Amino acid sequence: MRPERDLAPAEARQADPTATSRRGFLRIAGLAGVSLSLVSAARRAEADIGFFAKDLPDDKLTAMFRTILRIRWHERTMADKMLSDPDYRGYNHFYAGQEAVAAGACAALRNEGPFEQIDLVYSTHRPTGHAIAKGVDLKKMCAENDFRATGLNGGYGAQMHLSDPAVGFIGADGMIGPGPVLATGSAFAIRARGSDQVVVFFGGDGTYATPHFHSALNNARLLDLPFIYVLENNLYHQYAHYSFSCPHTDIAEAARAYGIPARVVDGQDVFQVYNAMHEAVERARAGGGPGFIEAKTYRYYNHWGAPGAKVGELGAFGYDPLAISSFRPERELRSWMQRDPVDIARATLIDWGVLDAARAEAIEAEVRAEVAEAFAWAARQPLCNPEDGLRHVFAEGTVIARQFG
Amino acid sequence: MRPERDLAPAEARQADPTATSRRGFLRIAGLAGVSLSLVSAARRAEADIGFFAKDLPDDKLTAMFRTILRIRWHERTMADKMLSDPDYRGYNHFYAGQEAVAAGACAALRNEGPFEQIDLVYSTHRPTGHAIAKGVDLKKMCAENDFRATGLNGGYGAQMHLSDPAVGFIGADGMIGPGPVLATGSAFAIRARGSDQVVVFFGGDGTYATPHFHSALNNARLLDLPFIYVLENNLYHQYAHYSFSCPHTDIAEAARAYGIPARVVDGQDVFQVYNAMHEAVERARAGGGPGFIEAKTYRYYNHWGAPGAKVGELGAFGYDPLAISSFRPERELRSWMQRDPVDIARATLIDWGVLDAARAEAIEAEVRAEVAEAFAWAARQPLCNPEDGLRHVFAEGTVIARQFG
Amino acid sequence: MTEKSWMYAVLEAVQAEMRADPAMTWIFELTPPVASNPGMPVINLETEFGRRRVVNTGIDEMWMAAAVTGAGLAGSRAATYIPYQGAGMPFQIIQNHAGKLRHMTGGKASIPVVYVIELTGQTPGFAGQHSDYELDTAYAHIAGVRTVVPSTPYDAKGLMHAALRSPDPVVYLYPAGLRMLTEEVPDEPYEVPLDKAAVRTAGGDITIVSSGPGMPVVMEAAARLQAEGVGVEAIDLRALKEMDTETFVNSVAKTRRLLTVDMSYYTLCPGAEVIARTAENVEGARYKRIAFPDAPPPASPEMFLWMRPNADHVVAAAKRLIG
Amino acid sequence: MTEKSWMYAVLEAVQAEMRADPAMTWIFELTPPVASNPGMPVINLETEFGRRRVVNTGIDEMWMAAAVTGAGLAGSRAATYIPYQGAGMPFQIIQNHAGKLRHMTGGKASIPVVYVIELTGQTPGFAGQHSDYELDTAYAHIAGVRTVVPSTPYDAKGLMHAALRSPDPVVYLYPAGLRMLTEEVPDEPYEVPLDKAAVRTAGGDITIVSSGPGMPVVMEAAARLQAEGVGVEAIDLRALKEMDTETFVNSVAKTRRLLTVDMSYYTLCPGAEVIARTAENVEGARYKRIAFPDAPPPASPEMFLWMRPNADHVVAAAKRLIG
Ligand SMILES: Cc1ncc(C[n+]2csc(CCOP(=O)(O)OP(=O)(O)O)c2C)c(N)n1
Ligand SMILES: Cc1ncc(C[n+]2csc(CCOP(=O)(O)OP(=O)(O)O)c2C)c(N)n1
Ligand SMILES: [Mg+2]
Ligand SMILES: [Mg+2]
After folding, report:
1. Residue D287 forms beta bridges with which residues?
2. What value does the mean pLDDT of chain A take?
3. Contact between chains at C70 and B155 (C-beta distance less than 8 A)
4. Which of B92, B125, B294, B297 has most ligand 2 atoms within 8 Å of its beta carbon, as the pocket-test mutant?
């Protein structure tokens, strides 16, 4: 009972012997015994708020697909390394499952040019997808996550503090709450200096309950800041369902209360995300003030690291480390995996005639090679020099060692 | 062009030679040359959300009128003292003009009984009205405000930290923001121990913009706490109009966004406030969760103290200490003074046949005497013992003096 | 008496107090109040006491701290467990409200609550915002609040009982790196006083003062020094406020040498207070501090482990101070 | 050179920097950036630079601090003026974000912003939450942020220029009680370094170290002591972080007596750090601290004025330390 538009790539993959990449997923989808593609199509229609993506040139659309794949394979490769290589020290809050949000949102931004002209992105503890989508160098990011001296941030920050202002990726932040208020501050500065940049904050459903949520939205509205809050509602903050901390079904309702235009989109469909983001970015750039996008999405791994996952397989199942108040049911994960952002993007592009299945496979193969090379490069990088820990406290000089007495 | 219901008390006052108390006000109203009583009647009708007050026994209604008068004369007497007595050290954030809010809201609460059964009130930097309405001893409060050892809080706190748990007045708090979150904590404890008490937070329009506003309302809703937020929208926080910090015309809209039932009431009409409060208290007591009441009101004095005021006259005019972004126009104050909570309560009670003009005057005279005696008692009280500053840091003992080296 | 983990020992205390007082509540965020220990029943406060008393909230540590403060003001004992990532969020509420309300109200307000505040800093690789041993100073400087920091499972349980029974607000710093430590811990309730230091080893050559996460390092160093014949008086502050001045001043009056060890940033670390109090009371002693440098903890294990005080540093500094 | 009030001198610096940098912004809440001085033009930043650059916000000091931090991250210099009532609200943002971001990003983030944080404590009658000199310690303990506290109009202006030009985040503690002080202050911009103490009086008998609000008290005491023939080296720290250790250590190496004076709470007050650093470097000196007791400041003027350190206390303590 697969509708036409999804059939093509599935068929193509099955016909192509090199197409092993998504087999794990297909097997799971098969087992689950239901296809949610109809739901998908319905949702897409309902939230098809603009035609922006449909008007884009092919290369731009293909780039979004490539971004999704780069994120996906970065996450999978890193998860596999965590699981299989005892010497590997990196860790991550994996973004797999949410790729379409970062890819669609960042595709609507200005990512190249001098720092005073590009759009700025603030991210969270789950930053690798946003970093890749914004254009951070993959090799350097891999090195940073592995605490290497030549990493993106010299090994000082690692996964939770990735930052690359050169591409407008202000960066990750390990705390839940302050991110959006800091981001409104950037938007405030931008407005004050008369620039047409916009500032985007990506945050989870967990950010809703923080006191900072109110501060960020209220000030963004009062000062009409060029600020876009992309709320990735993946249903859980750590191990609690968002209904534990939020009285709204759609968190976007909370933003609307401030008079901020808000959209709820299918976060698994990169083009829906792009459309909503394009609308918000255009408005903000023109001085029309803030926007809010709630993307309904899901993470395939657990909150942190790869417990419950198996090497070579996507997703983490059955991991319940503690008797927790609220923990995601495995069935929920399986049903979300049936609406995979990679599959939806691929199917849509084939449907639109932008790609054919073979080209899609070729792109994926390129991406896998690129990712593998990034990890390999990172692993060859030097470790940090201990004494350098005393640098970068202030712009100049070093602070004094105090651990020796 | 005075409609009937307002005529009676005005006539009565003019006929009664002892009725000098409100002359200043009447003169002002006369000068302004317009009567807003029609507006008043219209507003009252619009927001006449319940009939609760109308069903109350006479003594209860009279008590509300008396509370308003006690607050009014406390504020006026204290302002006059600040202006005229150079030895007087007390200060206040005066509540005059807002009396109907405290009086109406506290009349709907349980104010007598053991601490585990009475309703709790949290107040702000502008607490004297709430304290009086909740039942705090007037004499002791006056002594506290004058830093006396036998004051309500032994002279440790004074005006901004008045507290009397014995009547459920948890107290004033000098900070804007934390009050409502602390209050939700009390409501949480009450719900956990299965009590039917309710917790009320009085806060200004300035509290809307604090990050705590979100925390308080969100948690009150999520946990269905017996918590009522009475927002006294007197249009200004310090010297800024509330539109500088709030995108809503009715701040109640913000509460509704959380799914909290909210009412906007005429804060100059004690019975409207009572009605809305009665509804919210009944709901909260029955386990129905939080409520929010926005009372539109106005303060007759400036933010702090009595600058711009004259001895024996109500209100402060023309004080503009700095070139401030936003400062209240004198005309705004004059037009609000035409809808005075004392007059509205008196006129309504006469209209309802609860009082006649003579009785109203007699009550006012009693109250004035009581207030005068409270200030006189306070002035006779001993000053504090310096060393006592080292007590009450912890429940037991004193801390060490460190100022001598 | 059973060998118990720190985590289990602490929850045992909380469970006992909640059983004794049906009004007491516990607010948590992401660390469920659950612990197990070999041979002992699983403790799960949430299932045992229900969700009215044991609440899993959103990510709002400011509210958590304010909520227990408000519970206290309403007459209920309450405690909250703030994860290390949110350890700085409740600062203003504790400093300006919990710490001041009793005094400001002339003794009328009582806040019998416990703020369990996790601190970390022992995990190389986490770093930055996820290492925050530095917050000990911020909380210890506050007036009107008792601030304690246990270093052993026994003390962790006893201090928890004392904290929950105290009429004063208590900041109970919880060094997350120590929660897997185990030792023999009595099953029944007992109190460890909120204002007494513990002398862990006796000796006449040097006094070494530390607290919480610094103590394992100090104990290792002390053992090595004692083995070499150096008499070490190792003192575990346990209470950062009110500090038990007498214990360390008496010790230094004897040893004439004071070395302090902190995982907190150097400037204004608790050791600075220990040295200052001693220097005001003892003449002619020699002093040295070991602490984390005044730099955020970097992620790279190479940098981080080099910067973090360890037993080698303590041994070497002690010898220099004596020699 | 004109006689100017502290307030005017500071706004003169801000005005000059905002004129020089059209991207620079100023966020305030209830203290409008307006000052007048006899014979000088009125300064009103809001009217001069307009409401896009100079913003009057709601009561949300956390946002104010975060907003300027974010402005800095976006490449704009920015400053915010936090009133004393909200002085604790931005703590977490400054401690965990402003202080750590440069380091955590390996030097990529730059936060050239100034947090002007008012402190009070000189007004009997206010008390409680409206007296918060204690916050100096909380901010001075943070790594990655420079914390300064001027005590004269001249320094207030020069430190403001230096702070606004610094690539590092600066917490500029603003003792509100001093803002009516006047002195001759140059009209043109000049910098007072962010890491240098000032020796206010020279003398060989005793070193007295203080900062900000403590300095007027120290200067009065020093004058009285000098008049009695006691040689006082009065040192104004100016920078709490990074502290200018050399200046006070050299002084105590000479005088062998150190008295510190703080308006902050005793435990972990800046003077504790001054004593600890000195004791680590100078042997055989004598030490004493004067500070506000570890108690919230009460409202009653009788209690408050008795508890607040004053010149009499300093004179007497200095004599005891010498005698
Ligand atoms: C202030 C603060 N409190 C707690 C944490 C611990 N923490 C890290 S991630 C997380 C959950 C975040 O959930 P959400 O915002 O939905 O993002 P997601 O993990 O789902 O991407 C929590 C509670 C934190 N980082 N910061
Ligand atoms: C956290 C904090 N910031 C600033 C202040 C200073 N302040 C005292 S009252 C006030 C205005 C409050 O306005 P509102 O809430 O409307 O109450 P109103 O004075 O109108 O009764 C401000 C800004 C404060 N007390 N606390
Ligand atoms: Mg989430
Ligand atoms: Mg107001």
Report:
1. D258
2. 88
3. no
4. B125
> Searching chain D, which residue's CA lies closest to the CA of residue B238?
D30
Amino acid at C249: V
The shortest C-alpha distance from C244 to chain B (Å) reads 13
Looking at domain D2-185, which of 3.40.190.10, 3.40.50.970, 1.10.510.10, 3.40.50.2000 is its CATH number?
A: 3.40.50.970
Is some CB atom of chain B closer than 8 A to the CB atom of D47?
yes
- Tell me if chain A has a CB within 8 Å of the CB of D51: no
A399 located within any domain: no
Chain C residue numbers touching B164 (CB-CB < 8 A): 108
Q: Which ligand is nearest to the CA of A178?
A: 1
Ligand 1 centroid distance, CA of A192 (Å)? 31
Strands (E), D30-140: 34-35, 43-44, 54-56, 78-82, 113-119
- B156 and D308 within 8 Å at the Cβ level: the answer is no
Residue B111 lies inside a defined structural domain of this protein: yes
CB contact under 8 A, A389 and C42: no
Count of structural domains, chain B: 1
Domain contains B149: yes
Backbone angles phi, psi at B274, to 5 degrees: -60, -45
> In the predicted model, is pLDDT for residue B19 greater than 60?
no
Cα–Cα separations (whole angstroms), residue A221 to B246, C142, D29? 9, 36, 17
Question: CA–CA separation, D225 vs D203, rounded Å?
Answer: 10
CATH architecture of residue range(s) C198-322: 3-Layer(aba) Sandwich (3.40)
Of D42, D125, D316, the CB nearest to B147: D125
Q: Is the pLDDT of residue A25 over 50?
A: no
Is residue B231 assigned to a domain? yes
Of C286, C260, C254, C285, nearest to C273 by C-alpha is C260
Ligand 2 in reach of B236 Cβ (< 6 A): yes
Give the three-state DSSP class for D98.
helix
ω into D246 cis (within 30 of 0): no
Q: Give the residue numbers spanning the domain of B374.
A: 19-387
**Average pLDDT for residues B346-361, to the nearest whole number?**
97
* Binned average pLDDT, 10 residues per bin, chain C of 323 residues: 94 98 96 91 95 96 98 98 96 98 98 97 85 95 98 98 98 94 97 98 98 98 98 98 98 98 98 98 97 97 97 98 94
> From the CB of residue D168, how many other CB atoms can be counted at a distance below 10 Å?
22
Cβ distance B182 to C68 less than 8 Å, yes or no, reads no
- Segment A213-265, tens digit of pLDDT: 999 999 999 999 999 999 999 999 988 899 999 999 999 999 999 999 999 99
Instruction: Give the number of other Cβ atoms within 10 Å of residue B195's Cβ.
Output: 17
Residue of C nearest to A324 (CA): C32
D89 touches chain C (CB under 8 A): yes
Q: What is the pLDDT of residues B363-389, one digit of tens each?
A: 999 999 999 999 999 999 999 999 999
Cβ of B234 below 6 Å from ligand 2? yes
- Report CA A215 to chain centroid distance, whole Å: 24
SS3 state of residue B120: strand
CB contact under 8 A, C298 and A324: no
Q: Which two tokens stand for residue B38?
A: 């029609």
**How close, in Å, is residue C7 to chain D by CA atoms?**
27
Position A177 scores a pLDDT of 97
The helix (run of H) or strand (run of E) holding residue B375 is: helix B357-380
Our answer on whether the CB atom of B179 is closer than 6 Å to any ligand 2 atom is no
Query: Which bound ligand lies closest to the C-alpha atom of B208?
Result: 2
Three-class HEC string of A207-269: HHHCHHHHHHHHHHHHCCCCEEEEEEECCEECCEEHHHCCCCCCCHHHHHCCCCCEEEEECCC
Closest C-alpha residue for ligand 1 atom 22: A238
CB contact under 8 A, D71 and A163: no
